[in-house]
Design brief:
With 455 residues, the protein is an alpha/beta fold. The chain is built from 13 helices and 20 strands. The protein binds guanosine-5'-diphosphate (GDP).
Length: 455
């Protein structure tokens, strides 16, 4: 029998999205954080969104790590994130009103803070791009990271110091007002009103603010289990994603070290989360996108609407080229495949095994965005199983075609599948192999012997 208990100690694990985000990382990190002492969010801001269902109750989290749903787990918002304090406070209030304690939440003092001008500039610049828009969430995340790179950002530690905040904001808002008024024809901001609003936020957040990298290091020294939770996904990575249709931070596994402030030698495992099909929200090329009825079916069955923006997600077949790319860029040890149940009614399932680029077969993800936009998928078609899987709890319970589908994906990507998710709740999960303590890069998928369903 499979069990959800993964409770052996000592492993520092990164969980990343292996596609374009929304893979169901929230559910997987929630499952794994049961055995984690510390959960760290290392990049992104309130543009991310995880939906976690616990005992029939739905929690929508944007910035706070999913580990908050486990009362003993310490949650850290690391220095690589950007924090919109007003939204973070709303999230804290929402959790408290549902009797979820937030006392274990720590916030990095070196994380950057999203200000009202970031949100205004984000929306105005996206509008100005017209047909070339990136599809940002309009939450000010990109402009916050841009100020960080330009060395004009406000950090949490500045927010905690009224004198420094007042000085910095007077200077910064004066120059941002020029942009708002002259470039975007918007009214200027009143610095005093912004300062007053943010000093109130500071008072509320102060008890949570720490040197987070030090806290994480202390946890490593005390041999605590640490889970690093990525937001967005590999193909949205600023450096390695489908630029310019990417997010403004580094969701890939390497980003965890920078964003949390830990050395790579402290990481034991990297787990990728991928849907059994593919979705993408916002603009940008998407070779396996399904236009028409089948796309609508996947969207409806998978409830493919953004947690943060409510935007409808574009749906497509599983793309093993980007899957292999995610394995490479993140050094994945294993994969959690989610939403297999969404394919339950599908007669025939396509998997993109390679691309056709100008008549040439292309098995590797092209780093040139123009080439990627021209790629045509080469599909292999597999039979569907036409049976509900949401009650399956072991691999033996799965229809043969579903098992064959999973094995095919694992073989194509050359990575073992450790977890299969068949529904939003915690129990709708098959643990194929303990993702943290099982054999590293076990060749479960090629040895031809039955995959054990026991942990
Ligand atoms: P994340 O940001 O990667 O955590 O993804 P989201 O939370 O934005 O989207 C995943 C959605 O799928 C959420 O609504 C989850 O509750 C839901 N979900 C997660 N795993 C499964 C699954 O195996 N089957 C189904 N049907 N839904 C799932």
């Amino acid at each position: 029998m499979s069990t959800l208990t993964i409770d052996k100690p000592l492993a520092n694990v990164i969980v990343i999205g292996a596609q374009w985000g929304d893979e169901g990382k929230g559910k997987i990190t929630d499952l794994l954080s049961k055995s984690a002492d510390v959960v760290v969010r290392y990049q992104g801001g309130v543009n991310a969104g995880h939906t976690v269902v616990v005992k029939g109750q739905t929690f929508k989290l944007h910035l706070i790590p999913s580990g908050i749903l486990h009362p003993e787990t310490q949650c850290i918002i690391g220095s690589g994130t950007v924090i919109d304090p007003g939204v973070l406070i709303q999230e804290l209030d929402q959790l408290e009103s549902l009797n979820i304690s937030t006392r274990n939440l720590l916030i990095s003092e070196t994380a950057h803070v999203t200000m009202p001008y970031h949100r205004l500039i984000d929306r105005a610049s996206e509008e100005r791009r017209g047909i070339h828009k990136i599809g940002t969430t309009g939450r000010g995340i990109g402009p916050t990271y841009a100020d960080k790179s330009e060395r004009t950002g406000i950090r949490v530690l500045d927010l905690m110091d009224a004198v420094s905040l007042r000085q910095q904001l007077h200077r910064t808002i004066a120059s941002k007002n020029v942009i708002l008024e002259k470039l975007y024809d918007l009214p200027p901001l009143d610095p005093e009103a912004v300062i007053e609003e943010y000093l109130e936020y500071a008072d509320r957040l102060r008890p949570h603010v720490v040197d987070s990298s030090l806290k994480i290091y202390e946890a490593v020294q005390r041999r605590r289990n640490i889970l690093f939770e990525g937001a967005q996904g590999t193909l949205l990575d600023l450096d390695h994603g489908t630029y310019p249709y990417v997010t403004s931070s580094n969701p890939v596994a390497g980003g965890a070290c920078v964003g949390a402030g830990v050395g790579p030698t402290m990481i034991d495992r990297v787990i990728g989360v991928a849907k059994a099909y593919t979705t993408r929200v916002g603009e940008g090329p998407f070779p396996t996108e399904i236009h028409g009825e089948m796309g609508e079916i996947l969207c409806d069955r998978g409830a493919e609407f953004g947690t943060t923006t409510g935007r409808k997600r574009r749906c497509g077949w599983f793309d093993a080229v980007i899957g292999r790319y995610a394995v490479r860029i993140n050094g994945l040890d294993c994969l959690a495949v989610t939403k297999l149940d969404v394919l339950d009614e599908v007669e025939e399932i396509k998997v993109c095994v390679a691309y056709d680029l100008d008549g040439k077969r292309c098995e590797d993800f092209p780093s040139n965005a123009r080439h990627f936009a021209q790629c045509q998928p080469i599909y292999k078609t597999l039979p569907g199983w036409k049976r509900p899987t949401d009650q399956c709890r072991t691999l033996d319970d799965l229809p043969r075609q579903a098992l064959d589908y999973l094995k095919f994906l694992a073989e194509l990507m050359e990575v073992p599948i450790a977890i299969v998710s068949l529904g939003a709740s915690r129990d709708q999960t098959i643990i194929v192999e303990d993702p943290i303590h099982g054999p590293k890069r076990a060749l479960l998928y090629t040895n031809g012997s039955p995959i054990t369903a026991e942990v």
